[in-house]
Amino acid sequence: MTLAEFLPSWNAGMNAVSASALIAGWTAIRRGNRELHWKLMAAAFAASTLFLIGYLTRFALTGVHRFPLQGPVRTFYYLLLGSHTILAVVALPFVLRTMWLSAVKRSFDRHKRIAVWTFPLWAYVSVTGVVVYVMLYHLPRWMA
Q1: Rounded distance, CA 74 to CA 66, Å?
Q2: What pTM was estimated for this model as a whole?
Q3: CA–CA distance from 98 to each of 16, 47, 49, 72, 116 (Å)?
Q4: How high is the pLDDT of residue 104?
Q5: How far apart are CA 89 and CA 124, in angstroms?
Q6: Please, what are the domains in the chain?
């Protein structure tokens, strides 16, 4: 298996790890466990960073991949991909600011105010990243 063949699955895995860590981190902070929350958010950030490195590498190696199916599933795929892409761009500064306020500034009140926006954006991008992968790399085989 080449790197270009491996990276799509790796990227989906990193999105899945990020989504799982985000949900577990949200649960931890709701229970008042700041230490566990911080570790899980750091894991989500690391997984998202590894995803981005993998995605940019895959894109450099193979370029754009076209969705091969037609009809309503194609429309749904492109709507999902569009929202995923736009919100990924929007989420990045929110993620960086949220992490900065917590890790560097130790400004937990400000962190909390922005995290209520960051969490749903980041979670949506992570989950839809996995769905986009499944639709692009597996759905065409399943529907053949």
Answers
A1: 10
A2: 0.93
A3: 21, 16, 15, 37, 10
A4: 80
A5: 12
A6: 3-142 (1.20.120.80)
